[in-house]
Amino acid sequence: MPVLVRIPPPLQRLTKGEKEVNLKSGSVQDIITQLETSFPGLKDRLCDEKGELRRFVNIYVNENDIRFQNGLATKVEDGAEVSIIPAVAGGLASREEGRGMSLKGRFILMDIGLSLKHGERWFLKTF
């Protein structure tokens, strides 16, 4: 049984519009290599020049964040589902005296069901 890899909309232009791709099992690194073979340029969007996962890219294997597993060495078994989730940022940033930066606004990330409602305070991390 193949591994199902879900491709986020920002990367679908590299996959010729494919939202899901079936690949062979292995490690996450193997999955990225297979993606690069089929869709040149995709690895550069996922990994930096050292081959490490970019900070703004999150990969989940069966809903488990690989950063809390074995990173790119995380095993991907037959029948697993791999989701590539780019980080989301935006909204109105404001500086409150003595409090640093905060976000005010509303965001909805449909793929993972995250909703940040107006008025909630989220402190920005500088990348």
CATH topology of the largest domain: Ubiquitin-like (UB roll)
Main beta sheet: strand number and arrangement? 5 strands, mixed
Please tally the helical runs, counting DSSP H or I stretches of 4 or more residues: 2
Main structural class: mainly beta
How would you state the average pLDDT, rounded? 79
Task: Using the 3D structure, state the CATH architecture of the largest domain.
Answer: Roll
Low-confidence stretches: 95-127
Number of strands: 11
Q: Indicate the overall shape.
A: globular
Radius of gyration, rounded? 17 Å
SSE topology string = EEEHHEEEEEEEE
CATH superfamily of the largest domain: Beta-grasp domain
- Largest sheet, spatial ordering of strands: 2-1-7-4-5
CATH class of the largest domain: Alpha Beta
Number of domains: 2
Strand content: 25-35%
Ends distance: 39 Å
Fraction of residues in H or I helices:
10-25%
Describe the fold and architecture.
With 127 residues, the chain is mainly beta. It folds into 2 domains: 3-86, Ubiquitin-like (UB roll), CATH 3.10.20; 88-127, no CATH class. Helix content is 13%, strand content 32%. It contains 2 helices and 11 strands; from the N terminus they run βββααββββββββ. The protein has a 5-stranded mixed β-sheet with strand order 2-1-7-4-5, with helices on one face. A two-stranded antiparallel ribbon has the order 3-6. It has a two-stranded antiparallel sheet with strand order 8-9. A hairpin with a 2-residue loop joins strand 4 and strand 5. It starts with a strand and ends in an 11-residue tail after the last strand. 12% of the residues are buried.
